[in-house]
Amino acid sequence: MVDRRRFIVGSGAVGALAVLGGTAGCTARAEGEAVSATAPAGGHVRGATAITKVYGDGQKLVAVAVEYDADITGSALSTSTFKVTGRTVTKVYANRSADLAERGRDGRYVIVEMSPDDKAAALWVTQQGGGTASSSSPTGSSPTASATASSSSSAGAAPGGGGPKVGDSTPGGTIVAAKATLTQTGTVTTTHGTRYPASATKVTTDAVKNLIVDDFRQFTFTDPVTKKTLKYNLFVPKGYDHRKSYPLVLFMHDASVVNVATEGPLVQGLGAVCWASPEDQARHEAFVLAPEYDSVVIDDTYKPSPLFDTTAHLVQSLTKKYSLDRKRLYATGQSMGAMMTLGLNIKYPDLFGASFVVAGQWPADQAKPLAKKKLWIVVSQDDDKSYSGENAITKVIKEQGTAVATAVWDGRSKGAQFAADVRSLKAQKAPVNYAAFKTGTVVPAGSATSAHMATWQVAYTIPGIREWVMDQSL
């Protein structure tokens, strides 16, 4: 099993680590040189833990928990008490554990929070200009980094005319090791009044805490039918009771994550981890399944590799291993994963109770079975290929007599507005909901990403859609 406290460092990690201040484990103590946190700075620091959090655009290093040899009072701490190499410190407080908190409590740990907007915060790094970072291709891997649909896979192109092909295994991103170097630049005071003065000694983190990600476990499944082996991440609800029956959410990633690392689907964005958040689990305890595909499963020819069926067989196998509600198995995916979601619903019509489809498409002439499914579809109007594809699918669904609720949303909206948008769409009481983000509203200002990829950076931040999915059943 993979050590969930440390991730594989890919080819892009060296430069990023240099920005963050070097590596741990140094033993020399020349003036200003970084030392391992296990070698106490000033005799009082006992360790330092990097804390990561996943956002819509990927995992980021957002805090360092510095452990002292005595309880620290938080009243005298400020953002000037610590400096983190290459980062912007936003909040400093004491705590009783190495965890983030809205309000700190006096304890052995000092939590140094940093801006997630810092360039050096990013731990998921896409291959701009050479892989999958910004694409209008349905599988998310055009070779260009354009914010518009300008690749050979844009609307009107022949199937398979651009993007990756089935079997391609070139990763489109890199997971960077979470590491930071910091200095205590102000006085830290214990709860007994002892003052620890500022020190020039640099401390480098020697442990990592990955919020939510660490709650998943990694496994492999060998399909007795296809003979293919599939690595996957599985979240089991805390306090799992085999006497109860639980729903399961299957998340399928886009092509940029193929062959990265087993944890890739967990750190690239929110598509998997959002369902396992404490907030979502408090509302609906559920298993979350996130396979890691070692190669592209489906391309614009819509002829999938055997891993397509292996995915369905994996879900079926888990229903025999755990106490799962077979009427409440759900599918979701982005780009390649959205295509798989649609295709699996067609080939295995009795498997999923509902599906959340983000930025994908399927041939309209095969879409009739989708009229019997419960779907929530999200796409951007300026994601030409996916938008035209979903328009064609929903047209077929409506022609079969199934109601489709439609709306155009502003992708820049915040929580309250999105909640109102979801309520408005649900009020139409249709089994298929189709929300399109208005042109030009999902790509952040100054970003080189495409509307295609930016769609899922927004879509999985909307709790109301997940709530709707969890309310459905076969």
Rg, Cα atoms, Å? 23 Å
**Beta-strand residue fraction:** 25-35%
The main sheet orders its strands as 14-15-17-16-18-19-20-22-21
Low-pLDDT stretches are 1-41, 129-161
Could you tell me the CATH topology label of the largest domain: Rossmann fold
The CATH class of the largest domain is identified as: Alpha Beta
The count of strands amounts to: 22
Can you tell me the CATH architecture of the largest domain? 3-Layer(aba) Sandwich
Query: Which structural class do the helices and strands define?
Result: alpha/beta
Specify the helix fraction band. Answer: 10-25%
Anisotropy-based shape:
elongated
- How many alpha or pi helices? 9
**Largest sheet report:** 9 strands, mixed
End-to-end separation in angstroms reads 34 Å
Mean pLDDT: 87
Number of domains as seen in the coordinates: 2
CATH superfamily of the largest domain: Alpha/Beta hydrolase fold, catalytic domain
Describe the protein's architecture and organization.
The structure is a single chain. This protein has 474 residues and is of the alpha/beta class. It has two domains: 13-122 and 176-210, Immunoglobulin-like (Sandwich), CATH 2.60.40; 214-470, Alpha/Beta hydrolase fold, catalytic domain (Rossmann fold), CATH 3.40.50.1820. The protein contains nine helices and 22 strands. The strands form five sheets. Strands 14-15-17-16-18-19-20-22-21 form a nine-stranded mixed sheet, sandwiched between helices. A five-stranded mixed sheet has the order 5-6-3-2-13, with no helix packed on it. Strands 1-12-9-4 form a four-stranded mixed sheet, with no helix packed on it. Helix 7 (415-426) links the parallel strand 21 (404-409) and strand 22. Helix 7 (415-426) packs parallel to helix 9 (463-470). The chain is elongated, with a radius of gyration of 23 Å. The model is unreliable at 1-41 and 129-161 (pLDDT under 50).
